[in-house]
Design brief:
With 192 residues, the chain is mainly α. 85% of the residues lie in helices and 0% in strands. Helix 1 (2-13) packs antiparallel against helix 2 (17-34), helix 1 (2-13) packs parallel to helix 3 and helix 2 (17-34) runs antiparallel to helix 3. The longest helix has 18 residues, at 17-34. The chain is elongated.
Length: 192
């Protein structure tokens, strides 16, 4: 099943959901028949991406939910974190910010002390969604946690996103001079 899933993923990387779908469906069928949970989860997660690329607003969450259910059923917290993050991305694409926030918070909890990149990414994403929802204090808290986690893990490539997010929060608060300072700081961090 891994070969089929990888074949589908290569089409996804090219942005072609329609080309990815047949290989991913075959990979899912084979993985299910072999009771290969990891490949079943991967196939469904990637089918969710394919459906999103194709604009299928019903199939994308259906596949992502199925992947999450399998990961939770298997007791695999790393896979559950990935699947909750993916389902959150689908809801974001659908414009469903509250669902996105709930799923990304779930993904963050499931990620626990796992991949530092995932933790930083989720904190940044949660900050952005909280800002869009008008929860500006929560947004700032997420951005600060992202910065702390990035510093601890030596993930300097993520750190410029923190002042960018903080600038968005400042702008939403009507603090335009502060927003400009944050944005300049982000630009300086990118240039170094």
């Amino acid at each position: 099943p891994a070969e089929w899933v990888e074949l589908g993923r290569s089409s996804l990387l090219a942005g072609d959901g329609a080309a990815a779908r047949p290989a991913l469906l075959r990979g899912r069928t084979v993985a299910d028949s072999l009771r290969n949970g990891a490949m079943s989860i991967a196939a469904r997660n990637n089918l969710a991406i394919a459906a999103r690329l194709e604009g299928d607003r019903d199939e994308a969450p259906r596949q992502a939910r199925a992947a999450l259910a399998l990961a939770v059923g298997a007791g695999d917290s790393a896979q559950a974190a990935l699947c909750a993050q993916r389902l959150g991305e689908v809801h974001l694409w659908r414009g469903e910010l509250r669902e996105t926030e709930t799923l990304w918070a779930r993904a963050l909890t499931a990620a626990g002390n796992g991949s530092p990149e995932r933790v930083v990414s989720l904190e940044l994403n949660l900050g952005a969604v909280a800002a869009r929802l008008g929860n500006l204090d929560a947004a700032e808290a997420h951005f600060r946690k992202a910065d702390t986690a990035a510093q601890r893990a030596g993930l300097e490539g993520y750190r410029w996103l923190v002042p960018l997010g903080m600038g968005d929060v400042a702008e939403r608060r009507g603090r335009f001079a502060e927003a400009v300072r944050y944005d300049r700081r982000a630009a300086t961090m990118i240039d170094t």
